[in-house]
Amino acid sequence: MASSELDADARVARLLQRTGFGTAAATDVTAAARAGYAKTLAAALAEGDDPGAGATPAPALGPLPERPKKPGEPEKGSRSEKDPKSEEGSKSQEERGSSEKAGQRDAAGGVRNGVRHDVRNAAARDASRTGADGGGEDGEAADEDARKAYRSALRGQREDAVLWWLDRMVAAERPWREKRTLLWHGHWATSIGKVRSGQAMLAQNETLRRLGGGDFRTLARAMVRDPALLIWLDAPKNTAEAPNENLARELMELFVLGVGNYSEDDVREAAKALTGWTVDRRAEQGPRARFRARRHAGGSRTVLGHSGDLDARALVDLLTEEADCARHLATRWWGWLVSAENAPSRTSLDRLTEAFGARRDITAMLRALFTDPAFTDPDNVLVKQPVEYVVGTLRLLGLRPRRLPEQGGRVLLRSLGGLGQTPFAPPSVGGWPSGPAWLTTAAAQSRLTFAQYVTRAARDTEAMAAIRKETAGERPEALARLLGVREWSKSTRAVLVDASADPARSLAIALTSPEYSVLA
Amino acid sequence: MRTTVDTWTRRRFLKASGVSAAGVLLAGGAAYSASELLASGDGEGAGGEGGVLVLVTLYGGNDGLNTVVPAADPHYREARPDLAYGEDEVLPLGEELGLNPGMKGFHGLWKEKRLAVVRGVSYPKPDHSHFRSMAIWQTASPESPAPTGWLGRWLDAQSKPDPLTAVSLGATLPPVLAGEKVSGAAVSLGRARLPDAWQTVCTHLAAEQAGVHPLQQRAAATLGDLVRVNEAFAADEEQGSGDGKGGDKKNGKGKGEDGEGSDQDGRQSPEEEDEDEDKPADGASAGGQSGLAAQLGLVERALASGARTRVYCVSLGGFDTHANEKGTQSRLLGQLDKDLSAFLGRIRRTEAGKRVVVAVHSEFGRRVQANAGQGTDHGTAGPVFLLGEPVRGGFYGDQPSLAKLVDGDLSTTTDFRDVYATLLDRVLDTEPGQILDGHEKTLAFL
Fold first, then answer.
1. Domain for residue A257, yes or no?
2. CATH architecture type of domain B2-190+284-435
3. ipTM over 0.95
4. Range with the lowest mean pLDDT among A24-28, A162-166, B12-16?
5. B121 SS3 class
6. How many CB contacts within 8 angstroms connect chain A with chain B?
7. What domain of life does the native source organism fall in (chain A) (predicted)?
8. Which of B377, B405, B406 to mutate to test the interface with A (most CBs of A within 10 A)?
């Protein structure tokens, strides 16, 4: 095991790494150490303008084209879900129109990273046109084309959204806001795979970014009416008579209270309180949450011993008052920022929940986390999340995801897929795994592949020039400083010394090393 | 992303069940390649002479009432008028029950008396959380969290515990295979290709050393595993295709130097490509893998190669049908039916295949009453299926009564440990009590 205590440099280095994307160059560490831990923390958590992130506005994705049903495919949705005015014909007319507008917007939208964007939009337009006009056998073939166009458009939205966010994470001058948004995304884990709307995913992303550092109740109130989350957990199908419990259960189990801190009756009652919220998927700006009083189950509900005429907002208010809410959030964030293996001690947990306090202050809670003695315990090592690994590497090499050569966007997407973490597509409502679960053979292969690509892509960067300038003898140490690795192990050093005549190869090896895979 | 679905579920499980993640993932759970699995045969035939268990886990909570359907029961139709199957739709099993219309293969096996249906299976005080309930099923410990899975404990009890005796198909290890002394192996479905020049590098980076944090050590170990996986596959390719790929092997400065040929061939990461946006996505928010056919395909190859493996764990996800259940569930059950009956049809002709028993379960069934979204919420007891040549077909356990619900849920008529005990006793040749904390009751399906 490492030494019994971290020195001052190592402490601020850890702080910079964990409030950012896992890297901290030696120069930044030296400056931070001079400023001191408290000032470094205050600067890291400060809100305010970030010109870097500000220069990366979200892409305008537009609605997807109509997707015709496959022959024999069961009718989707309940009868009651359909709006009486949405006759099929007028609906496709409407969507076709907006999809064309979206296509034009996209065509003018600027950089597309190895993604066949304009072609796809044109295909989608054509297909949706033929789909609407066709009939009989021709109609079936046209339907198949339209489905293909739909798939392609959805995939395009997914790629655009992911690359945009990665680009923003890399561009941000102060990375905490994006890092915090990423962690909230894992908390309120929602996947475009079921939501099927890039617009809704981007809107949710902005909500998490905007409200992720304030009063948790404000965030939770927004999330129970977030269109993407509502679709993801089947809320739009709800009626007063027979609500489904998916959202109610996960709200209690995963988002607010933690498993076991409520009864089955609480889940059933909460499900009724959440009724009434539906999603209108046809708005041009993207899916919109709409409250329909007729679908809301009125009357008195009892949840966790509190009775009243509960709606979604009142339910959230009630849940976020519970002591279990603070404990659950503190424990979950501890796992992401301190240690996935070592749970917080009673004392630490008390400190965090006290900081959260009656104002449910997320940033205060996290400040307490970052100043907890356990945060700088050398034993509390984390495994880098794949997004941290990829974004951190791009940041230190000065590479922007949207300006990469050689179909770089696709390489990034494939790397993240292989590493097991694609933003906007968590595997389930429980979010991503953490800790040793990231360390698989498949992930090792992907790290290696990514390291080689990114080393090639960085050929002409300043970072690469700096590595080249070092003498072979100095190169291993220079790489440690650049990557923010405290020290190379004996075996890694031997490999780096062996390769030190070749700067690019040295860098690729360093990026593959076990030291760089974890946050020491 | 498919492979990580289970990673997550397992991770959640580890927390929920109190299994130390470090214990499972650092000490055991080494990743093996398919080739290593295939090469593990010792000429004695699959699993030596003993039985072989294929455990199929359906993630998300499969609706048992629409799987083994009491179509004639008026309570059934009343509770879920839009979801109910008619008497003329289901495939008759007798005793006023019928299989979901999509399960024609299962129905054929039923008629051949090679399908057993254990009814009303759950545990005392059923939990409605996916993660808790799955943890209970996998640890076989309903009262308190347990650090090991029931098949992990079985591994521990072997005279020569060996990870390759119990494997999971997919990138990571399910907790059911976590033992105290030894854990089962996770066998990756994909193939890894490592540029030659990197083999030495990875081998050196993987060297074990003192004073390094266990997580860093684990990161190092994955690089070592990667080399072994790569070697196994390189051998495979040389034998298989003779396309000259093996020729690079001795050429120390291969094309791997700057990565060409290693990453752009699209083979490395099927995860990115296999998302099928056109597939109905309802029910997908609770984890589980797709690609059951590929998992079973590897089991079949392993059986044919005489691998010494006695237990295979495979999974299928998507059963969390809170909305639009009928279409989603019938598609998934159709896939299960097609893939499993094709698998059984092929292996039953082989000696090894005659010793295979397949068991299918989920973490819970669903609520009897439908919700407004033409779906159902988390419930309790459900059927467990057993298939294969050694199986004595028929019903076991009583069908829970729809007239006597417990808080809107089906009552439990069969303890899930009865099924495990039977499998331990008659497939895995192990005294059940020592694995199941004294539970010894068995059923007659074997």
1. no
2. 3-Layer(aba) Sandwich (3.40)
3. no
4. B12-16
5. strand
6. 292
7. Bacteria
8. B377
Do A131 and A12 fall within a single domain? no
Residue A112 corresponds to which tokens in the numbers above? Answer: 């597309």
Q: What span, in angstroms and rounded, lies between the C-alpha atoms of A261 and A36?
A: 40
CB of B114 within 8 Å of any CB in chain A? no
Which structure tokens are listed for A34? 């001079």
Q: Which chain B residue has the Cα nearest residue A148?
A: B278
Pairing of strands B52-58, B311-316: parallel
Asked if A150 and A37 sit in the same domain, the reply is: no
Q: Which of A127, A157, A173 is the last residue of a domain?
A: A173
Q: Is B274 on the interface with A (CB under 8 A)?
A: no
SS3 of residue B358 by DSSP: strand
Domain chopping of chain B, boundaries: 2-190+284-435, 196-266
CA angle A266, A267, A270 (to 5 degrees): 80
Q: What's the pLDDT tens digit per position in B293-306?
A: 988 988 888 888 77
In a domain, A251, yes or no: no
Q: Do B378 and A444 touch (CB under 8 A)?
A: no
Instruction: Select from A234, A245, A431 the Cβ nearest to the Cβ of B378.
Output: A245
Please tell me the distance from the alpha carbon of residue B123 to that of residue B83, in angstroms, as a whole number: 26
Show residues of chain A in contact with B201, CB under 8 Å.
495, 499, 509, 512
Instruction: Check B285 against A232: CB less than 8 A apart.
Output: yes
Residue A317 in domain: no
Token pair of B38 as six digits: 């295939």
List beta partners, residue B122: B415
Q: What is the DSSP string of A385-426?
A: PHHHHHHHHHHHHT--GGG-STTHHHHHHHHHHHHT--TT--
Alpha carbons A167 and A202: distance in angstroms, whole number: 14
Q: Which of B395, B400, B370 is nearest to B384 (CA)?
A: B395
Dihedral sign (CA B17, A269, A187, A449):
positive
Block residue for tokens 């790929």: B245
CA distance B216 to chain A (A): 5
Q: Check whether residue A392 and residue A514 sit in a common domain.
A: yes
Partner-chain residue, chosen from B193, B222, B322, that has the shortest CB–CB distance to A234: B322
Q: What are the beta bridge partners of residue B409?
A: B406
> Token pair for residue A81?
């879900």
Whether residue A511 sits in one domain with residue A426:
yes
Burial class (CB in 10 A: 0-12, 13-18, 19+), A348: buried
B223 interfaces chain A, CB cutoff of 8 Å? yes
Residues B238-290 have pLDDT tens digits of: 333 333 333 333 333 333 333 332 222 223 333 333 334 344 466 766 556 66
Q: What are the angstrom distances between the C-alpha of A66 and each of A129, A195, B410?
A: 10, 15, 41
pTM (two decimals): 0.74
Domain count of the fold of chain A: 3
- Full residue range of the structural domain in which residue A31 is found: 1-46
**Would you call A449 and B374 a contact, using CB atoms and an 8 Å cutoff?**
no
In a domain, A162, yes or no: yes
B186 or A170: whose pLDDT is higher? A170
Which chain B residues are closer than 8 Å to A514 by Cβ? 205, 212, 216-217, 219-220, 223
Q: Same structural domain for residues A29 and A63? A: no
Q: How far apart are CA A344 and CA A327, in angstroms?
A: 10
Do A23 and A125 lie in one domain? The reply is no
- In three-state form (DSSP H/G/I as H, E/B as E, the rest C), the secondary structure along B46-110 is CCCCCCEEEEEEECCCCCHHHCEECCCCHHHHHHCCCCCCCCCCCEEEECCEEECCCCHHHHHHH
Q: Which of B10, B212, B223 sits opposite A489 (nearest CB)?
A: B212
Q: What's the mean pLDDT in B9-13?
A: 37
- Contact at CB, A2 and B211, closer than 8 angstroms: yes
User: Looking at beta carbons, which pairs linking B401-404 to residues 24 or more positions away fall under 8 Å?
Assistant: B402/B70, B402/B73, B402/B75, B402/B76, B402/B79, B402/B368, B403/B75
